[in-house]
Amino acid sequence: MSKRSTTWQKATALVPLALLSGAWTASLAVSSATAGGDAPTTLPDGSSVPAEAIKAPASVSSPGEIAPGVPAGTAAQVVSSASTNGIPAAALAAYQRASQVITSADAGCNLDWTLLAAIGRVESDHGRYGGNVLSSEGVSTPGIYGIPLDGTNGTAKITDTDAGQFDEDAIYDRAVGPMQFIPSTWSVVGVDGDGDGKRNPQDIDDAALGSAVYLCSGSEDLATEEGVDSAVFRYNHSEAYVDLVKQIAAAYSAGDYTSVPTSSYAPVYFGPAYDDSIFDLGTTGHHSKPNKGNHPNNGPKPSGTGSETPTAAPAPKPTDSNPTKDPVKSLTDAITAIPETINNTVDDLTVATEYCMAQFSQAQLNLLGGLQACTEAYLDGGVNAINNLLNSLGLGLLIGLLPPLP
Questions:
Q1: Three-state SS letters, 2-47
Q2: CA distances from 130 to 50, 147, 277, 282, 403 (A)
Q3: Higher-scoring residue by pLDDT: 146, 181
Q4: Is 241 helix (H, G, I), strand (E, B) or coil?
Q5: How far apart are CA 32 and CA 191, in angstroms?
Q6: 47-69 pLDDT, tens per residue?
Q7: How many CB atoms lie within 10 A of CB 295?
Q8: 366 to each of 264, 267, 351, 404, how far by Cα in Å?
Q9: In sequence order, which residues have a C-beta less than 8 Å from that of residue 41 and are 6 or more positions away?
Q10: 88: β partners
């Protein structure tokens, strides 16, 4: 007998699935009707695990990057900071529940939650990419939307397949949600993972179980290295992606992770360029591109799943002592209210973020009130403002006065 269970065994294993989570109701029936006498693997919401391996990728990497949550050159840092980065409680629960559910449906798949968590980390930092945060219901808010897959700048060309239902773009498809599903693939694996009556790729419960369905389609045994390599490569056709996911999964398996509150923001903000469509604080959907003349990321843009590899931070600008200068309150304000300052805002935010991350450990940032408090102080008054913040908190002697960013 093969290591993988037959489709009939998969279906009969689903009988106790409702016991795994109180979110599922008795109305979610298990179907055993099939053609040819072989029952499909049916999940609690009535959807089925495909018997054949899904070859179309779930997500695609942008040229020059591994995934949205992993800017170029930061793969080693992502692995080494696995524990300090933290996994939001709702995401951790979603990964573990998805592993339980898929194991009950197909024990031969042997999908461990750590592999799902590793994919969630590289795709979106567990649903927190681009200023997003998981809501109490586990939904990425305001939402993660990739750039249009329009065939330019090295992207695949995928015209709209979902009428904008999931990606808010009726012209081209965009990868969506914390697991960065292409809508056409989500239409195959999308599942209601929390019993709320919706199949929402922005919901970490739905997205995690959808990823489990994708990885367990076909016949790979994910208890083997060969099975993991094959399934993860199907998910994203990149060897670098496979290698990084495996390293992060190994770190999580060794216990190198922490659970943080669901509403926690990512400790490092990877900000997209203006002509990406993962915008901070709620601007989503299809947008025309601005004039590229002075854009700080001018030139060929990484494309695909919707992230931008942050460019090297320029030297900080001298503090402006002009009392009439208004501080930049947020990137959204700059985009919606002062479009002509967008380029400078992105530039300044990058400098501030780079400075704070270079000068402080995560523990020190927590003492300061978090990365956002540090960057806001820098944007307001440069290094002097941060030193004033340290002194006001009684931390000047503890951390020491800070040098300017090299």
A1: CCCCCHHHHHHCCHHHHHHCCCCCCCCCCCCCCCCCCCCEECCCCC
A2: 32, 13, 10, 10, 29
A3: 181
A4: helix
A5: 18
A6: 778 889 999 999 988 777 899 88
A7: 18
A8: 12, 10, 20, 21
A9: 7, 10, 11, 14, 48, 49, 51, 105, 106
A10: 260
Residue 235 and residue 189: Cα distance in Å, rounded?
A: 12
Phi-psi region of 306 (alpha: psi -120 to 50; beta: other; left: phi over 0): left
Q: At what angle do helices 113-124 and 239-253 cross, to 10 degrees?
A: 120
d(CA 336, CA 342) in angstroms, rounded, equals 9
Q: What is the pTM of this model?
A: 0.61
Separation of CA 264 from chain center:
14
Residue closest to 218 by CA, chosen among 238, 206, 234? 234
pLDDT band at 15 (very low <50, low <70, confident <90, very high): very low
Residue 321, pLDDT above cutoff 60: no
pLDDT at 231: 97
Q: Are 69 and 78 in contact (CB under 8 A)?
A: yes
Point out which residues pair with 70 in neighbouring strands. 67
Beta strand 259-260 with 87-88: parallel, antiparallel or unpaired?
Answer: parallel
Site of tokens 């009939």: 8
Over residues 335-354, the pLDDT tens digits come to: 344 334 334 444 576 677 77
Residue with tokens 């009969």: 12
Residue 254 CA to residue 28 CA, distance in Å, equals 36
Query: What's the number of CA atoms in the CB half-sphere (13 Å) around residue 263?
Result: 2
Contacts of residue 116, Cβ cutoff 8 Å, sequence gap at least 6: 95, 98, 99, 208, 211, 212, 215
Cα end-to-end distance, the chain, whole Å: 63
Q: CA-CA distance, 87 to 332, in Å (whole number)?
A: 26
Phi-psi region of 151 (alpha: psi -120 to 50; beta: other; left: phi over 0): left
Contact predicate 307/67, CB 8 Å: yes
Strand pairing report for 48-49 and 41-42:
antiparallel
| Amino acid of residue 404 | P
Q: Supply φ then ψ for residue 98, to 5 degrees.
A: -60, -40
